[in-house]
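Exam revision sheet. Question 4 asks you to relate a sequence to its structure. Input first:
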Amino acid sequence: MFTKLESSKNKPEMYETIINQLKYLLEDVNDNITNLSNTSALLNAYLKDINWVGFYLFKNNELLLGPFQGLPACTKIMIGNGVCGTAAETLQSIVVDDVDAFPGHIACDGASKSEIVIPIIINNSFYGLLDIDSPIHNRFDNVDKLYLEKLINTLISYISIDS
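Answer key, structure tokens:
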């Protein structure tokens, strides 16, 4: 059912498939951890050339590790530090072609070479972010950014800010 992104299928089609699968997985599920876990697992199953995908959640004025797929990761990130902390501070998506060139990059996995981070904003409040790493440079582009932002907008409708 789930396969890595095939080169014969274009990115927009693949992301539309992922978003449709996400809606199916999250339908009638009222638990944030379950929904975030299935979202990270779905992205891990479909996207090729990634080595980490998961969420950092905003709690007590810092980012705390949430559901993810990949090697163990940094458990806390201060706002403004590294790629994730910068995305949290600016509330803007960030695509990094070469993480070693990013000022203050936090190396949780030395194999990571590029990264994309998408903030999650619910009812004008910062909830957390989606973080995806790749072991190759220049893995992510504006198409990834556009569709991952769409995916997060879909996910938001299944997240309860009371949980």
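Marking note for examiners. The helical segments are 11-26, 32-46, 82-90, 142-156.
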